[in-house]
């Protein structure tokens, strides 16, 4: 694809796919039914990004979605992932832990309600924020659910920090004095700082390798925390206050750009398909070992050509993937620091032929191999296009530069 060739998004096909999912999810999604709230978020957010939510979904159906989200609200605060665990009138102090609210689905539920235009009037705000505060761990991060005897279960990583900060930001209300019920923001900031790796990106927990998805969660959490300040500040200013090196983080994200999209080069010996190619050749060496000697052919194949395809990877040495295009471009857009380096991003190369072509090994057509490969990556592609436009549309005069 030439640099100056315009991209085309087959909007009608995307709308058709999401509208179909809104009525009946394909069979492979059955295993993810306990997280139906997250699937609902992908559907609603995607239709909203395509700017067709009100035109293809009737007001009556949108209201039914709002009512369903509220049916997943837990009496003690927060939202469950689906109605299958609801105990109804049988819920009591001895069995409530079998029907817990969880942090990610609470964030998704509130986001769905906002996208659908709900005023959050039926949200148990005080109970939700009190429940959220009980989920914060000593290191500043968050668990996922409260188990028996209020024991914090699951989590303890950057993803839940992002969701928790988002919940608090959505439900924050100075008039009601609820901001004090949320959590210890200083502890969370310290946890985020401790998760920044030596190369600038953020990992799942302190001392772990940086990862694009978790890096996005860190930047988004900083953005939420900054928005809760009075007056509010952006993610870059919040990062400075916390002691985060936003310049090294930005450089790390930009360095995730790659033209390497051939997943076959990553197959391990003896892995899927490896046995078929693992015969003895030329002196008894497996063919895979010969192929991985000092040959530079795998690199040469992906050097820029007349039809380059580029994207972002999630970690050093990995192939490009649709979701990582969003995690990186989205974080760049959120941080507002990226405009200093926007000339290093080629949006015309990020997602070529968006209607049918994957960047990396993700499903982007009508065939669904897994819930993660279907709804998630379709929604991510659309969000990447929007975020990429934000990155290149920033007013450089208004962007605070790093010291």
Tell me about this structure.
The chain is mostly helical and 403 residues long. It has 17 helices and 6 strands. The chain has helices at residues 11-23, 36-49, 53-56, 59-71, 103-115, 125-133, 158-171, 185-194, 212-227, 235-242, 246-254, 274-277, 287-291, 297-300, 322-335, 347-350, 372-392; strands spanning 145-146, 152-153, 257-258, 280-281, 285-286, 311-312. The protein has a two-stranded antiparallel ribbon. A two-stranded antiparallel ribbon has the order 3-6. A hairpin with a 3-residue loop joins strand 4 (280-281) and strand 5 (285-286). Helix 2 packs parallel to helix 5, helix 9 (212-227) packs across helix 10 (235-242) and helix 9 runs parallel beside helix 15 (322-335). It is globular and about 55 Å long. It starts with 10 loop residues before the first helix and ends in an 11-residue tail after the last helix. The model is unreliable at 265-297, 346-373 and 390-403 (pLDDT under 50).
Could you state the order of secondary-structure elements as H and E?
HHHHHHEEHHHHHEHEEHHEHHH
Give me the Rg, rounded.
Answer: 23 Å
| Contiguous uncertain segments of 5+ residues | 265-297, 346-373, 390-403
Structural class: mainly alpha
Distance between the termini: 38 Å
- Describe the biggest sheet? 2 strands, antiparallel
């Amino acid at each position: 694809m030439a640099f100056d060739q315009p991209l085309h998004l087959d909007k009608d096909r995307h709308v058709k796919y999401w509208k179909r999912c809104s009525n009946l999810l394909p069979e492979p999604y059955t295993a993810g039914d306990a997280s139906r709230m997250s699937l609902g978020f992908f559907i609603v957010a995607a239709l909203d990004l395509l700017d067709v939510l009100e035109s293809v979904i009737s007001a009556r159906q949108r209201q039914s979605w709002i009512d369903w989200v509220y049916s997943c609200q837990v009496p003690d605060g927060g939202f469950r992932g689906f109605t299958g665990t609801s105990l109804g009138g049988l819920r009591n102090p001895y069995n409530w832990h079998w029907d817990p609210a969880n942090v990610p689905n609470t964030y998704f539920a509130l986001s769905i309600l906002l996208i659908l235009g709900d005023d959050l009037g039926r949200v148990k705000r005080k109970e939700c924020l009190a429940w959220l505060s009980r989920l914060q761990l000593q290191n500043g991060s968050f668990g996922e659910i409260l188990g028996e005897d209020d024991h914090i279960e699951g989590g303890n990583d950057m993803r839940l920090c992002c969701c928790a900060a988002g919940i608090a930001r959505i439900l924050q209300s100075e008039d009601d004095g609820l901001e004090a019920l949320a959590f210890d923001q200083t502890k969370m900031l310290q946890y985020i700082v401790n998760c920044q790796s030596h190369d600038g990106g953020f990992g799942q927990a302190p001392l772990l390798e940086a990862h694009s998805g978790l890096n996005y969660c860190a930047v988004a959490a900083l953005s939420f925390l900054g928005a809760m300040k009075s007056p509010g500040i952006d993610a870059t200013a919040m990062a400075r206050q916390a002691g985060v090196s936003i310049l090294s983080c930005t450089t790390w994200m930009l360095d995730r750009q790659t033209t390497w999209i051939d997943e076959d080069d990553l197959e391990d010996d003896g892995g899927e398909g490896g046995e078929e190619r693992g015969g003895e050749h030329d002196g008894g060496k497996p063919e895979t070992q010969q192929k991985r000697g000092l040959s530079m052919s795998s690199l040469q194949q992906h050097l820029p050509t007349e039809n380059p395809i580029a994207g972002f990877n999630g970690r050093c040495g990995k192939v490009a993937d649709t979701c990582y295009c969003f995690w990186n471009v989205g974080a760049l857009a959120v941080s507002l620091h990226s405009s200093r380096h926007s000339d290093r991003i080629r949006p015309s190369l990020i997602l070529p032929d968006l209607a049918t072509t994957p960047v990396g090994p993700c499903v982007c057509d009508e065939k669904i191999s897994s819930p993660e490969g279907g709804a998630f990556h379709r929604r991510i592609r659309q969000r990447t296009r929007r975020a990429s436009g934000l990155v290149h549309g920033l007013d450089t005069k208004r962007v605070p530069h790093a010291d």
